Amino acid sequence: MLVTWSTQLLTNETYVEYSLWNGTFSLRENATMSKFIDGSSAHRVLYMYRATLKNLTMDTVYMYHVGSPAGLSAKYSFRTILDENRKSFAVYGDLGVVNAQSLARLQRDAQLDYYDAILHVGDFAYDMDADESRVGDQFMNEIQEIAAYVPYMVAPGNHERAYNFSNYKSRFSMPSNGDGENLWYSYNFGLAHIISFSTEVYFWWEFGFAQIANQYRWLEQDLQWATAPENRTKYPWIITMGHQPMYCSNANQDDCTFYDSRPRSGLPYIHTFGLEKLFYDYGVDLELWAHEHSYER
Ligand SMILES: [Fe+2]
């Protein structure tokens, strides 16, 4: 289990202390620190800490807190995954600091252990970089009452694009088997192979064309792995999540209202790196999208 947190002042000797629920915080894992500098002219600094708790037993409740000799957080808990295939997810996108209508329900359900993981398919806070990234701080404090209990898995949306997605890249900790900065990655969970990717590479070219091809090639390789017979037998469901959908029936002239939407057909006019054919060829079972603020399936 990987725990991520941040402070505004640098703390030394920073760690997670943990144990079984009825234990005494007898285990400790030291954290690594990275510095986040907000992209605005204020250059506000946050210190991001990460620690991975190892040798955990399946289907077991642990308690933990984070901090340093200067002070500790509240006590939180998580349950490690069950040694069985049934898994329960909450899936959503587009959750802001203001008008977060699902927040209380999600916090309550997460604390009641209803979910094995949360999948947040892009667009956070509106926007994390606002007010010198203080809106990002506020958002992370709100979802802490979810994410401190349950793995919180993310994909980038258009609202994360400021300063080349720096808040998004710095505040979350996703598997490192993709680009290494949370933009694309995959993992196995129960019977599913879950792939998170960035639809935003098709829209914000100022951050480089190369990442369109890099992501596409990685997706192809990852799908080759997932569809190898021995892996597909173990993880028969292939699930993708990306923010801006290939299709939608909204009448708002967004990209998905056009036949040749970018994630579907790839780059305009030349139609390269489109994902519809790729996902179809490799038998992706379920694609999760967000962005349109409407429910369609
Ligand atoms: Fe969006």
UniProtKB/TrEMBL annotation:
It catalyses: a phosphate monoester + H2O = an alcohol + phosphate. Its EC number is 3.1.3.2. This is Purple acid phosphatase. Belongs to the metallophosphoesterase superfamily. Purple acid phosphatase family. The keyword Signal applies. InterPro entries: Calcineurin-like_PHP (IPR004843), Metallo-depent_PP-like (IPR029052), MPP_PAP (IPR041792), PAPs_N (IPR015914), Purple_acid_Pase-like_N (IPR008963). Keywords: Glycoprotein, Hydrolase, Signal.
